[in-house]
Amino acid sequence: MSKRKNNYLPDVSAFPVGVPTEVIDAVRALYEACATRRAVWPLNACISCCMDAKMAREMCDGDLRSLTARHIYEYQDAAHAAEQDADEYLHFLPKVAELISQGDTDIVRHSTEIALQRLGGFDHSMLSFAEKQAIERWALALWQWWLDAAGNSQGRFSLMHESADSLLVMFANAGLTIEPFLALWQRSESAWAAVQFGTMLAHMVPNGSGITPFAKDTPQLEPSIRTWAFKTEVYMHFAAIWAQLTDSDALGLCNGHLAMEASVCATLGPRVSALD
User: Fold this and answer.
1) What is the pLDDT of residues 249-260, one digit of tens each?
2) Which residues contact 106 (CB under 8 A, 6 or more apart)?
3) Residues 30, 159, 172, 210: what is their CA dihedral angle, to the nearest 10 degrees?
């Protein structure tokens, strides 16, 4: 099947100021990689009560640039067969990625953890090499943006205030291997990444409550995260970053919540400034 023409590619103006170039480039690469995929009628979506039938028809007949956030949200949130048609979803995935990359997963689904659930609804052996690379590139670029966010510096983007476990569950529900995301996290030197590690670890102590309940659909995820998080080298990396934060910076990264700051202290240890 022929590729769509280049004029379907979003440019920088399609994204709010502050979205990293790496994320925008990754979205464009995803459009290119999935350019031969097509959605045909009928869609894998309930049009009797979940999705407007006219909008569903427009999604099949129109081009991606004409689709609105409402089209994508209704399609993503509609009841559908668990087994997803790969051609159909890969046709829409670049638009889904473009919307999420505006800094808010709520644009495409009511809960972050299931924002890419349809992507996990088919065997990824059906992906071409280029598609697989493009999907991983975009997801990792999004994750790197979050790791580098440093809390309030990009506060206008709700994506930057998501918890680590919510985003990791989103990627796992999309059918992606979680190890590359953990490896990027471990290499991060940002204070935000360290605080988020401490926050998650506080819930994952032995016999703790574990990560978000949405993880139940990906039973392999929590054991993988737990094994990684309790490695000495991982713990020491983030504990060292935490130890050097000032009291004001630590509290700011904990959103001003004293209880959260105390739980991270209990997990990662006291900071140098707190010992003076």
Assistant:
1) 999 888 888 998
2) 112, 158
3) 170
Buried b (16+ CB within 10 A) or exposed e, 19-44: bbeebbebbbbbbbbbbebebeeebb
C-alpha dihedral over 101, 228, 206, 148, to 10 degrees? Answer: -40
CB 157 within 8 A of CB 18: yes
Is the overall model pTM greater than 0.70, yes or no?
A: yes
221 pLDDT higher than 60: yes
Q: Is the dihedral of CA 156, 259, 234, 231 positive or negative?
A: negative
CA distance 158 to 149: 11
Query: Which helix H or strand E contains 29, and what residues bound it?
Result: helix 21-33
Sequence-distant (6+) residues with CB within 8 A of 153 are none
